[in-house]
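ESCALATION

Customer reports they have been waiting on this structure for their group meeting. Please prioritize. Original submission:
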Amino acid sequence: MPQGGVKKVVLAYSGGLDTSIILKWLQITYGCEVVTFTADLGQGEELAPAREKARLLGIKDANIFVEDLREEFVRDYVFPMFRANALYEGQYLLGTSIARPLIAKKQIEIAEKVGADAVAHGATGKGNDQVRFELAYNALKPDVKVIAPWREWDLTSRTQMLAFAEKNQIPIAKDKRGDAPFSVDANLLHASSEGKVLEDPASEVPDYVYSRTVDPEKAPDKATYVDVEFARGDAVAIDGKKLSPATLLARLNDLGRENGIGRLDLVENRFVGMKSRGMYETPGGTILLAAHRGIESITLDRGAAHLKDELMPKYAELIYNGFWFAPEREMLQAAIDKSQEFVTGRVRLKLYKGNAAVVERESKYSLYDQELVTFEQGAVAYDHRDAAGFIRLNALRLRTLGQRKKKLKL
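Update from on-call: job pushed to the front of the queue and completed.
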């Protein structure tokens, strides 16, 4: 019997087997009208089949939304995050985390447009994504009902899900008959793989898991050089050619893929409390991070740079945990954006067998003064004798502590 209480629901729909099962389950369980939303975030898949699959499952054309969000994704989510040099637990470039608030935002916009009273997602009850989606929903539309099928239904095994699909005439691809060796989430920033063959952190990631990078050992024996230009903290051109945000990131992805850059085998701490092992490939993002830190190294004042590095772990954790729309993230973003006023210039990187190394950096706003640092004659603005008083004042408390230890024979 339908549960009732919901008239129309907007489902985040990929067109894959799991979300197709969810679509039918929503119709049966809630007896409601289902609206599908499929986002093109640069995952590299043809999205037309998602529209056809929704039609096959009885969804009217007026209730099928497929949107190209690649430019918005990079411009309004990826780039602001990279201004902060955000890394979760010092390594993860947050490729999955940063996509969820945009998907949730579009779901809510569609819900408002079509008069839906509920939204639904396909995140499992063990992962972080359920938290990210639902925190965003609540921030943007506090009165919306949220349906999380994985926390409600009794389809507790792959066998049961396949049986449900067959019973309800949901097409099942041949490669979906058996258990998938691992699951993949992808967008223009990264691809992440987890589960099954990756669950044992004592076992090396099999070669067939990698999809976005060549093996660094098999990458070209000759280095590739690339120039990245920045304006106020955002990359705007590659090798002198102005590019849109999504096009620029796609080009960096190509360069990273060819040179085996951006692989990460990580055991991370999920927000829900467990540790998980995953493999991430972020080729373009890895290059972009190195380039951004390179241009900041000559344009940011020491105090601003060090404060940014202190704030970064908190900022990254907020994104990882799903608090993109929280006031504390917005406050930190304002400070980070302020720091980027003069982060403009060019960085040259050398890409070689898995490494992205900054080899040149220049900016009209550079704070680097060769006259000050040179060992040659010059630097009239710096008197070596001034260092003596500077050191004496900084050593005062250390001398005081040392005298106490000596007096008490500690």
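Sent to customer with the following note: The chain has 13 helices and 14 strands.
Escalation resolved.
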